[in-house]
Amino acid sequence: MNSQIRAIDVRLLGRKRTGDETVFFNLTKELLAQDKDHEYWLLTDERDEATLDMLRERLGIVGASQVRLVTILGRNRFVWNLVTLPWFLLTHNVAVFHTQYILPLFVPARTKVVDHIHDVSFAALPQYIGWSDRLFLSLFIPLALRRADRVVVPSQFTKDEIIRHYGTSGDKIVLVPNALSVEFQTLSHSSFESIRQAYGLPEQYIISVGTLQPRKNLPLLIRAWAKLRERLPEVRLVLVGNRAGHHFDPDIDRAIAECHGEEGVVFPGYISASDLPAVIRMARVFALPSRYEGFGIPLLEAMSQDVPVAASDIPCLSEVAGPAALYFDPTNVATCEEKLYTLLTDNNVRENAISLGRGRVSLFSWRTSATKLLSLYDELSR
Questions:
Q1: What does pTM read for this prediction?
Q2: Dist. CA 256–CA 252, nearest whole Å
Q3: Where are the alpha helices (DSSP H) in the chain?
């Protein structure tokens, strides 16, 4: 086994199920399955042994001699990044260090740094985040991009955005696409009807899955659904997301009240990873009205379950879904409503979208992406 140490910051794993956590978990798991020739240290601030054991099991590294979960303690994430982690890297011979967004203030010159940037919505739409987050990111993201030896992004759109907002050289930005979680590659053992009852889902519904932040543009979807209800009163709207989450959009509730949609808009709350595929599969249409995304994993999730997709006509989403989705202007309620109506009522369009969607899903795999990431590590280690 090669004596080089490759360190990956895995603090995010297991904390909360977000797009970023999904990406980093699946990439790390597949990477460790492929590379048995190097020593990997997975850096965390978790000290609870039961939680660490669960993480080992999820990553498939129980008994893996070349992989260590290393707990580095810090009072908070700032101390961890600014003091504890730099000291750890200074005192250990780490060849490659892979983290997300913010880098330690100091990284030894001998250590090559890979910075994973999922999107730069904070630069493109700063009005949607708090002033403290805006200040923090405006200071530390440029520093991270300058220090990183390579920047990993999930889409060409995100690469272009980093170049546009920060002037980073395109030569140091590497495209490593996202893909589907394993849950979406196997059917749930529970019956659809039991899942429907467990989450209080209606018989016919349009679904949207993601955070409930302003950039997700859900008020527009709510207003489009309200117009659609005049023609198809039996169709409800299901919004899967955490109402207590970071930067919840208060305009969601205002739009529901304005449209008198309290009885028709359903918030099912937390849905387990194993149940989510079935919840999506039972939907008539999947809608993603975002103003901004870095990739759009929910599009792949919906297409994998044979659910036709209506999405914002923005570069990132068309990069992922290609011709498999119907696109609408994310500033125009009427165009959104019309695409939803078409997918709900025109069987030829529905079947074509479903068929094209299966083809799009097949273009993305964690195995291929992890192989690309491993090649990047090898290049930096030479």
A1: 0.93
A2: 6
A3: 19-34, 49-59, 77-79, 85-91, 121-124, 131-147, 156-166, 192-199, 218-228, 251-258, 276-281, 297-304, 315-321, 333-345, 347-361, 366-381
190 Cβ contact partners less than 8 Å away, ≥ 6 residues apart: 274, 275, 278
Pick the CATH number of 182-361 from 3.40.1080.10, 3.40.50.2000, 3.30.360.10, 3.30.565.10: 3.40.50.2000
- Containing H/E element for 7? strand 2-9
Q: Which residues pair with 100 in a beta bridge?
A: 116
Where in the chain are the domains?
A: 2-179+365-381, 182-361
- 306-336 residue pLDDT tens: 999 999 999 999 999 999 999 999 999 999 9
Which of 2.30.38.10, 3.40.30.10, 3.40.50.720, 3.40.50.2000 is the CATH number of 2-179+365-381?
3.40.50.2000
Cα dist from 48 to 45, 51, 73, 305, whole Å: 9, 5, 12, 36
Query: Do 15 and 46 touch, CB atoms closer than 8 A?
Result: no
pLDDT digits (tens, 9 = 90+) for 58-74: 999 998 889 999 999 87
